[in-house]
């Protein structure tokens, strides 16, 4: 079977496009790990600002990767949850975490 | 075992940082697939310009992800090859290609 190179490149670039930038995957990972509240998610991602997290969550909700549920309590409770579609990122995220950890070991060995 | 969230986020962001942008992974993938010559690599990646490919190849060589060998022939023959370290990206790339293909099916179904 001839591998379709152009189709693979396209699939790869589509994925890179959806992942888009520094914060998207860490947020998806955090929510997939069970963090539901804004502050929980924020605390689990070192360096993210409230503003960036807020913007990314809106974007992820628009793209159907997460759901946002508002419970009518006092004070109002808002919960974020990952959709099944979002969970399909699992293998990508795990492969990237594994690579990042190996990469760090390599860097530490060298220095 | 408690999962170390911050370590995972760091590993994820390190990987995103090394992957860096739209072209890096498609180039790595192309070279891992056996393309060795500049023009071969260029042709396998739709939309990339000669200038971008040239810049990315230099960067990948500096980071020890590929090697560049010049053979003293007429005309001079230059070959690019991936290092073992580069091949460690394999699982990440395959997971991303698989996700991108599924994503495309999903998008086509909806429209």
Automatic annotation (TrEMBL), chains A, B:
Pfam families, sorted: HxlR
Source domain of life: Bacteria
Alphabetized UniProt keyword annotations: DNA-binding, Transcription, Transcription regulation
One GO MF term attached to the UniProt entry: DNA binding
Domain (HTH hxlR-type): residue spans on this chain: 9-108
Keyword Membrane found: no
Name recorded for this polypeptide: Transcriptional regulator
